[in-house]
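Hi P.,

Sorry for the delay on this. The queue was packed all week, but I finally got your sequence through. Input first:
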Amino acid sequence: MKIIKLNKNLIEKLKKKAFKSKLKRSRICAHKSDKDKIHEMFVCLHNDTYVAPHFHKNKTESYHIIEGKVDIYFFNKKGKVKKKILLNAKSKNQNFYLRLGPNIFHTLVPKTKYVIFHEVTDGPFNKKENKFSQMEIFKKKRFKL
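Then the structure:
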């Protein structure tokens, strides 16, 4: 039996690991393997990270913010921003949870030094199903909003 618990000490370790990592992010996987039908992760993004615009072919994805704030941007196929949604762990009036359907181009942009969230998506993991933007706007430079 695998039991996963998360506490403030683990969150601080996630932050330190994200800060030291090349990509400025870290995660704890609650699922057992890439072959599991459900993937649950606790993710930390440092505000210097870059999450390339992407979509997940035929998979849903949800984010439940535990700490911090993050903007999630949604794009059309030509790379135009169609919508932005702020997720905020502490606000009474703002959203702290979001669920995406499949095939929606999106990216995450941290608005605080760190954002910690619980991510859930369909498994099994298949790298070929994650589609990163091939749009010229994203090839030429790092996406900044």
